[in-house]
Amino acid sequence: MFHLWAPWRMAYVGGTKTPGCIFCAARDTTDPRAQHVLAQAPAVVMLNRFPYTSGHIMVAPRAHLADLTTLPAAEFDTLMRSLQRAVAVVRDTFQPDGMNVGMNLGVAAGAGVVDHLHWHIVPRWVGDTNFMPMLADVRVVPEHLDRTFERLAALAGHLTAA
């Protein structure tokens, strides 16, 4: 029998939730590296602390909004440009075979954070889903978050372009 040790997962599985909004905290942090924040403006761009794959990032508006239909048009346009740049940064950093880009609106749709809109960018590779998540409910992420942050931070300047 083989054992896959991932002790950092206990923070997610058994840890207490941090009060407040992770996106607002990322927007206001004075230590972006510690929180894996790649950009704070014009949108909040940060690593997912519990990624599906290496390079899984999230893009959120700076404003604390839960309803996509209330997002002002100008801010929506800015966010779409930020999302577009973030996809380019992930593509250029990881060279995936494809990407999942989307958002989950509401608990029923799978949103872990329901009160602050955010998009997920998940790089994908042919064959990246194997028996581990299918049978063992375990996802193998081959790169440490700090290393992923370092790789993405090298291109993070592209995320703040106007």
Offer a quick outline of the entry:
Helix content is 29%, strand content 14%.
Task: Please give a structural write-up.
By secondary structure, the protein is an alpha+beta fold. The protein has one domain (18-160): HIT family, subunit A (2-Layer Sandwich). It is built from five helices and five strands; from the N terminus they run H-H-E-E-E-H-E-E-H-H. The protein has helices at 10-13, 22-28, 73-94, 131-135, 145-153; strands spanning 37-39, 44-47, 57-60, 98-102, 119-124. It has a five-stranded antiparallel sheet, with helices on both faces. Strand 1 (37-39) and strand 2 (44-47) form a beta hairpin. The chain is globular. The model has no long low-confidence stretch (mean pLDDT 83).
Query: Helical percent range?
Result: 25-40%
User: Which percent range describes the beta-strand content?
Assistant: 5-15%
Q: Class, according to the CATH hierarchy?
A: Alpha Beta
Number of distinct beta strands:
5
Strand order of the largest sheet: 1-2-3-5-4
- What is the CA–CA distance across the termini? 53 Å
Shape: globular
Helix-strand makeup class: alpha+beta
Mean pLDDT: 83
Spatial extent as radius of gyration: 16 Å
Q: What CATH architecture label applies?
A: 2-Layer Sandwich
Low-confidence stretches: none
Q: In total, how many domains does the architecture comprise?
A: 1
Order of helices and strands: HHEEEHEEHH
Query: Can you say what the CATH homologous superfamily is?
Result: HIT-like
